[in-house]
Every structure is written in C-alpha cells, then in structure tokens.
Amino acid sequence: MLTFVVRRLLLAVPVLLGVVFVVMLTIDLLPGDAVTLMLGEHATKDAVAKLRDHLGLDKPFLVRYLDYVGRVFLHGDLGRSIQQNRPVAAELADAWPATVQLTAAALVLAAVLGIAAGVASAVWPNSLFDAFARLGSLFGLSMPIFWTGLVLIVIFSLWLHWLPVGGAGSLAHLVLPAVTLALPSVAMIARMTRSAVLDVLYQDYVRTARAKGVGELLVLGRHALRNAFIPILTLLGLQSGQLMGGAVLTETVFAWPGLGRLMVKAIFARDYILLQGAVLVFALAFVVINLLVDLSYGLLDPRVGRQG
Amino acid sequence: MRSLPSRLVLGLSVLGLVGALVPAADAQKRGGTLTIVRPTDPVSLDPNLETTAPGAWVYFNMLEGLLTLDEKMQIKPLLAASYEVMSPTRVRFKLRPGVKFHDGTPFNAAAVKFTFDRALRGTPPARWASLAGSLDGAEVVDDLTVDVVTREPYGPILRTLAMYCMGMVSPTAVQKMGADFSRAPVGTGPFRFVEWKTNTHVIIERNPDYWGDKALVDRVIFKVVPEEGARMIALQTGDADMVLFPSPAQLPALRKDPKFTVHETTGIRVVFVGLHAGLPPLDDVRVRQALLHAVDRKAILENIMEGSAGPARGVLAPGVFGYKDMQLDRAYPFDRARARALLTQAGWTPGPDGFMHKGGQRLTLSWLAARGRYPKDGEITEAVQAMFKEVGVEAKVQILEWAAVFQQVRGNPLNHHLFTLGWVTSNADADYSLYALFHSKNVPPTGWNTSRYANAKVDALVEQARRSLNQTEREKLYGEVQDILAREMVWIPVYTTKEIIATRAGVKGFSIHPVEYNLALWKTWLEK
Fold first, then answer.
1. Does A45 touch chain B (CB under 8 A)?
2. For residue B347, which of B283, B269, B413 has the smallest C-alpha distance?
3. Burial level of A27, CB count in 10 A (0-12/13-18/19+)?
4. Nearest residue on chain B to A51, judged by CA atoms?
C-alpha cells in the first residue's frame, strides 16, 4: 500500500514538470512582449530593458525553464509575482482556501444530489420522477455556468432578496456559487449513478440477496450501491477536476476570491510567474485527488488493493 | 528659437489656498459606508507598481501629490502651498506646513525627495517613471522648501506633478514595511488604509487628522465584481452605492430611473484610425483627406457608440492642456463626392469593378486592428471599411490580438496603411500626445509616431513648447501644431471616450473627473 502511494507520488513529478513546461512554452509563444504589455503603452525603451533584465527574461527559454523548475522543486520557491512583487506562495495561500471551500461544497452537493437522484431513477425506472430527473440533468448539462449563475442571481438576489449578489464571507454567500458550480456535475453523476445502479440491480447476487429475503433497503445499500460505487467514484474524481476548472467561471460571476480569479488576473496582467504557480497548484490538486480516488477503490473493493 | 529664460515670466505664482470649496453644507450628512463595485482588484496600492485604474481609484484617496488637477482640468495646489519657476529645469515648491502622514511622520521636503528617489532611482524604476518625462528628482532646500529638478527644460512638469500617481509616501512606513507597503500604503490623504482582502475588497476610512476638509463618509469599501451584469444587479439590490464601468446597455434605463444617478463627462482618450503617412498611396495628402471625407463620423457616434462616447474634434481630447478644436466637421464634412474628387485629383480613376484605379492597380489599403482593446473598436473598423468601399477604396482588414497589433505598429517597418488605436494623454498636457505621436524623432521603434509623420515645422514647434515653461506661449505653439495637423490629417479621429459612473440617487456630492483614475470620494456623502 505504502509503495503504491510513493510510486504514484513519484509519478506525479514528471506530470508536474510537463505541466510547467507546457504553460511556460505557451506564455513564451504568445504574441506580444510580456514586459511591454505590463508596463503599458507609454513605457520607455529604457524602462522595458531594465524590467526585462530584472526579470531575467532575456535568457533563452530552456534556461528560464530549468531555473524555474530548479527553484520550485529543489527549494520549494515559487518566486515573486511580477505585478505585486509579493511571494507567489503568499498569493496562492490567500486564494486557495476559497477555491477549496467552493469546490468541496459543490462536490458534496453534486455527490449527494446526483447519487440520490440517480438511485431513485434506477429504483423506479421510467417513472415520472425518472423522466423529470433525466430532463433536469439534460438541462443541467447543457446550461453554461455563467448563464445559470446570472439567472440564479436575478431570481434569488434581485427578485427574492434571499441571498447576496456575490462576494464571500458567510454561508449565504456560498450557496449560489456552489449550486451553480455543482449543477452540471449533479446531472453527470445522476446519469452515471442511474445506469450503474440499474446495471447492478440485474446482477445475479442481487437476485440472490432478494431471494434470501434481504430487505430492499439493505439490498440497495449493501449489495447494489457498494458495487455501483466504483464507476461513480471515478467520475467524482474526474468531476473534482472539472469543478476546479469551472471555478474559474463561477468565481468570476460571483466575485468569489479564489484561485480561478487569481489565475484570470495573472493572465490579463501577463504575470507569468504567478500564473505558473497557480497552474502548478491546480495540477498538484488534480494529481492528489486522483490518487485518493485510486486508494479508495481498495476500500470499496478488496480485490483492487491486492493486485496493486 | 527664442532664448528660454527670458520667456519665464511666471515668477512667483502663488496658487492660493483652496479648500473651502465645499458647497453649501445645509443638507450634507456625515457618516455611513460607501460601497463601490468595480470589475477588478488592484494590482497594487503603490503607485510605483500600479498606474492602472483599479489601483489608482483606491490610492488616489489616500496619497496626495504636490499638485492636483480639478474636475475642470485646472492645476490646483495640494501638498504644495505655492511654487516658483527658478530656471528652465528647476521649480521651487513651498510645502504646506503641519501636514502629517497617516503614521504620524511629518510631511516635509525630505519626504518629497524620498518619494522621487524611490520611484526614479529604484530597481526596477516606478511604473510611472515613463510617464514623467524629464523629471529627475527633488532637492531639499529647507524643511518646507523643495526644488523639483528636470534633466532638461520640460514644460509639462506641472501637469506631470499633478498626475494621479505622483502621491507622496511616508518614508518611515516604506522603510519599516518593505514590500508590504504596496498592500497598505501610507500617505497624507483624506482617507487612510484599513484592509485589503485580495479579490474581495479594499476598505479605506476617513483620516480623522486630515489637514483639510475631512471626508464625509466614514468608510469606503471597494468590492470586486467582475461580471458586468452582477455589478448592475448589486446596484439595484442596494448591495452597492456606486458602479464603476456600468453596463452601457442599461444606461438609458438608468438615466430615466429617479432611484439612480448616471454621472458622465468627456474623458481624455481619443480613439482613431491611424494613417501611415509614409506608405503610398497615403503619402499623398489628398488621399488622406479623401478618406476623412468618406467617413460618416456622426453615424458612428449615434449608431455604434449609442451615446457612450463624445465626438473627436481633433487629435486631443478637450480636457487636455493645449487642446484646440480642429474643426474637423467643418473642414472634412462627410461628403462622398468630395472624397471621390480628391481621389481623382490624386490620379485615381473609377475602374470597372467599382474601385478606384491608377496604373492598373486597385486602390487597396491594408488595415491592422484589434477587437475589444477600446470600446467598439472592431465594429468601428468594420463600419469604416464599408464607408471606404462607397468611395471606391478597398480596405483589407486584419483583426489580430491586441498584443500582436501593438508589436506591429510599434515595430519597423509597418506594412499596413491603417490601424485602429486609442491614445490617452496621461498627464493631460498636449506634449504627451503631440510630441510623442507626431515628432519625427518618435517614429517606431523609438516612440509612438505610428503614422510615421515627419514635418520639420511640427518638430520645431513641439520641441519649443516642450522646452518652455511659459504656459501661455506653450498653448499658442500647440495651437499652431494642431492647425498644421488639421491640414495634413494623418489620423481619422473617431471618438473621445466618456467617463461614466452610476450611483444610487442617495449618493450626493460626487463629481466625476475627466481622468478616470481621479476618483475623488472625500466630498461624497450619503443621504440615508
């Protein structure tokens, strides 16, 4: 088990190296000069040259890449943001909790609502509820986040005055962004759960369990759900990545002070050091979540652990 | 050129102590919190690191310079009590006595010197160093007297010192706080810093020890709401008192609604179609003039800008010092017949395909433009392209990302005839535009003369105006430059931006400034 974890963590290193490489290369290939853009239209040549020198931008790409990677992986130093002259680590530390809060809330919401709706649809297939749930999930999947977000703001903030328009601070502030972010995932999870549970419900061991006289709730909980859970869990892991990506849009619509906003700000300001740091954190989070998902397979299905 | 010192007739020019300009105080109320929503968080609250609006809106209320520009774009003393021009490169300021920074440090000549040294000699230099022209620094004369020195005679020095980003910083605070200063600046202004939560809000509060009239509201909260629609909803639900960058589409309804006030004024940015004067056929002034006659600028203002911009009467915005109405509508009215006549004079004749031809060549112009860099720039480019077609001129438009357009117009050679650009006269002095944009020395890659315009007379006039500290003389010289430009036309000026801010009707005493960065909030009060 431990070797499995260590091996997976070591495998994450080339993934992160690759992510940094791609991000730095993309920024390098962008048209226009980062420093001129940063200093604005009115910058003198002298000022541009000085800042470029200060940032080490006149070095070749590979040298800059190795410099950065060396500093990050050997010294844990993410550098200083160009615009604010503040440690990137501090910027990320400020923004990180808000995104975790939002993503976690959305994930819990998506899991609870999605699984509940999916199970109900599977237990009563082709019922009125099932039809509604399927239609609803189609809706949830097709609506873009920024649109759903604005519609929810109009209904719950402007008309009903129940919830604040945006910002962070209280639980009330979290409701709308979390729901908005969760909706597409609820839909996805509901559909996946429905088909996984339906699949399991026709298995022999479920029929056996019923034949033994096990109560329907127990059949569902112990025999069906537990087995249906592996694909659902995989989806949850993937969805958490999706949710982090979606957070960029949700955070913008709801003025939520998280990593997504930080990243957008860094892109517009061409603050590539901050951007690299933020992308690195997203990548790391994704790697860790997927590792956790893989580990939890072992808990649900003892066969997985033995093979690993 | 005339000898300079003899022209320095300013002598001792006492600017007079204003301050008692607050309107009748009958209904004014103190207290309350003013909540402002705007699209982006500051980059920094230190002018050394931030010269763009999101930071300036906040620090303009906390940091004060020696001089400032009022809403009528007149220079007013702030931390200076008076000034005297000592020589073409030296202006002596008497400082206002008894002023203290928010941390208790006394404001004096040493603080002025410290502020300029930090900005101009630091590594890297301040972001605003490029805006400050020849400014070289300050020399302490005595505790309350300081000389501001320029490397060469520099006429725009007063307007430079009145820029929003020239605020004085507390030397003790900078030394104590180091890099943290940029997140919690200490100045002398009517508001002082309270808290900045990244991407959430910045809070400032009334400075109870302010040397002048104290601010009326207790606190100001600047919230970040990136989404335009969400900002407007925040205003309607009462979550916000003031919206910066309101949605243009909602302004007509807001103007009619008694619950809200829309504040607007002409800004200082001119958006234009630049003409490459060095690239045939645009090296022929008749072709350039024909293009001006071909454009229906009024229709663009009415149908594309829909009231969110003002007419461009010349290459400068009206609020800029040295501005002269170039009378474009009279000199170059929208008149397709005249456009065709001018093209015919220049040797172009209509061909069978509907376009003008000369020597078997069609009159084709290549056009570089971005979309979304300036309000409606893409739409304007397309509209003008269609208008050109009506007079037989084919424009081939290439829409690229702003960074790529920037790189090309600032590079050499430029292989496009036309380009859509905007220009802000940052220090509100004509020098900043006429010298930077039309002096032949400033042809890229050196400067911003993107039209590649070269006229020895213009060069001489803008140089003379730059070296003079006699503002009356400067104004006259800039007038002459604009007269020449009005004949030669290397731009098609399209519109002047408008500054627009929406508030609840209960927000009183606020006056909007032509320079978007100068968001003055100390006279604003809330009617509950």
1. yes
2. B283
3. middle
4. B124
A60 and A108 within one domain? no
Domain stops at, among A41, A58, A75: A75
What is the DSSP code string of chain A?
-HHHHHHHHHHHHHHHHHHHHHHHHHHHHSSS-HHHHHH-TT--HHHHHHHHHHHTTTS-HHHHHHHHHHHHHHH----B-TTT-SBHHHHHHHHHHHHHHHHHHHHHHHHHHHHHHHHHHHHSTTSHHHHHHHHHHHHHHHS-HHHHHHHHHIIIIIIS--S-SS--SSHHHHHHHHHHHHHHHHHHHHHHHHHHHHHHHTSHHHHHHHHHT--HHHIIIIIIIHHHHHHHHHHHHHHHHHHHHHHHHHHHHTT--SHHHHHHHHHHTT-HHHHHHHHHHHHHHHHHHHHHHHHHHHHH-HHHHHH-
Is B224–A255 a contact, with Cβ atoms under 8 angstroms apart? yes
Instruction: Please report the ipTM that was assigned to this predicted complex.
Output: 0.76
A143 and A200 both lie in a single domain: yes
- Whether A66 and A160 share a structural domain: no
Query: If phi over 0 gives left and psi between -120 and 50 gives alpha, with beta otherwise, what is residue A79?
Result: left
> pLDDT by residue (tens digit) across B123-160?
777 888 878 889 999 999 999 999 999 999 999 999 99
Select from A58, A75, A92 the last residue of a domain. Answer: A75
In a domain, A176, yes or no: yes
Q: Does a structural domain hold residue A276?
A: no
Q: For residue A235, is it within any domain?
A: yes
Query: How far is CA B247 from each of CA A39, A179, B242, B254, B267, rounded to the nearest angstrom?
Result: 28, 26, 13, 10, 17
B266-288 per-residue burial string, b: 16 or more CB within 10 A, e: under 16? bbbbbbbbbbbbebebbebebbb
Q: Same domain, yes or no, for A119 and A61? A: no
Closest CA to B394 of B430, B442, B444, B358: B358
CATH, residue A187: 1.10.3720.10
- Could you identify the residue written with the tokens 């109560």? A215
Burial B307-319 (b: 16+ CB within 10 A, else e): ebbbbbbbbbbbb
pTM, rounded to two decimals: 0.83
What is the span of the domain harbouring residue A45?
18-75
Task: Flag whether pLDDT at A57 surpasses 50.
Answer: yes
Report if residue A193 sits inside a domain. Answer: yes
Same structural domain for residues A173 and A221? yes
Instruction: Please indicate, yes or no, whether residues A68 and A108 belong to a single structural domain of this protein.
Output: no
Q: How many CB atoms lie within 10 A of CB B474?
A: 23
Please count the structural domains in chain A. 2
Q: In chain A, how long is the greatest CA-to-CA distance?
A: 85
Identify whether residues A39 and A112 lie together within a single domain.
Answer: no
Gap between the Cα atoms of A79 and A72, Å rounded: 8
Yes or no, beta carbons of B233 and A157 under 8 Å apart: yes
Distance in angstroms (rounded) separating the CA atoms of residues B214 and B512: 19
Same domain, A109 and A189: yes
Token pair belonging to B156:
């725009």
- Select the residue from B227, B250, B373 to test the A interface by mutation, using most A Cβ atoms within 10 A: B227
**Residue A94 forms contact with B (CB below 8 Å):** yes
* pLDDT tens digit sequence for B216-251: 999 999 999 888 888 999 999 999 999 998 988 888
A212 in B contact zone (CB under 8 Å): no
